[in-house]
Amino acid sequence: MIRINLLRLSFPSSPSNFFAFSSQIPVLPLINRSRSRLMAKCAYTTAFEPPGKKLLFRQLFEKESSTYTYLLADVTHPDKPALLIDPVDKTVERDLSLVRELGLKLIYAMNTHVHADHVTGSGIIKTQVPDVKSIISKASNSKADILIEAGDKIYFGDLFLEARATPGHTLGCVTYVTGDGLDQPRPRMAFTGDALLIRGCGRTDFQGGSSSQLYKSVHSQIFTLPKDTLIYPAHDYKGFTVSTVGEEVLYNSRLTKDEETFESIMENLNLPYPKMIDMALPVNLTCGLQELTAKPVEAASN
Ligand SMILES: N[C@@H](CCC(=O)N[C@@H](CSS)C(=O)NCC(=O)O)C(=O)O
């Protein structure tokens, strides 16, 4: 089990901290009384920030592949350690500028899986900020500085992400979930990659994909998280930005079906192959390091 850095325990905060997150999390529009009562349990507004701990969170978008990249940092730690989840090569400069402007120290460039539709930014990031470590799952059969397995905890300062194995879109897909515990922010946040998209899910027709496996992954590893857990996928093609476990359990158009119906839906998606798949896969199997020569610059490291 990987455990990086030290966990320093602290104790529950005063009630005023329950709203400390609200500026970062969208307010749920009121739809109707019964639905809003149901959704109150998965509201985006109630949040708990442990005393002396603050998670900086940004959702970033790459429009050609409709990919979300996520920036997380422990900004109460003296070093302001930060990580990027699913960076894209085309938007690395933007992301590193943001890291620099916010005074963060980027330590990890993480991938939820081997992407088929775009080139990961983790290789370019490593050439720009040599101390950054690339991370991907061992099950992806890729090369990276750190190969994680289910249950591993990835620490950035006093905060951490837990890795959950969610294969099915690809063999090595993982979901990174913010830590459980009184000293970690709530609600939890799940970075689901392509395993679970908002009201949908990743396709299962290549890279060791399996609809049966994806169904089990989502139901056992994601739908079992607290209902108010925020869902942040790697892609969105419809304009959504965030959902919750509670919302997807009720309204996901594919995963609310029984397994047999789900498998039939997935078999009949008939999606065209991603345009960049032949180019992207070999590069992404090395976390983007292939054919890159180290060109360190004073970028995102304070
Ligand atoms: N048209 C895009 C690829 C679109 C696509 O296939 N998206 C994947 C995730 S990236 S491999 C997917 O799983 N989609 C699920 C869905 O229901 O759309 C391209 O050519 O790159």
From TrEMBL:
Q: Which keywords does UniProt give here?
A: Acetylation, Dioxygenase, Iron, Metal-binding, Mitochondrion, Oxidoreductase, Transit peptide
Which Gene Ontology terms describe the biological processes this protein takes part in?
glutathione metabolic process; hydrogen sulfide metabolic process
InterPro entries in alphabetical order: Metallo-B-lactamas (IPR001279), Mito_Persulfide_Diox (IPR051682), POD-like_MBL-fold (IPR044528), RibonucZ/Hydroxyglut_hydro (IPR036866)
Identify the main location.
Answer: mitochondrion
- Quote the catalytic activity from the record: S-sulfanylglutathione + O2 + H2O = sulfite + glutathione + 2 H(+)
What do the Gene Ontology cellular component annotations say?
mitochondrion
The record's comment on protein family reads: Belongs to the metallo-beta-lactamase superfamily. Glyoxalase II family.
Q: What is this protein called?
A: persulfide dioxygenase
- What is the taxonomic lineage of the source species? Eukaryota, Viridiplantae, Streptophyta, Embryophyta, Tracheophyta
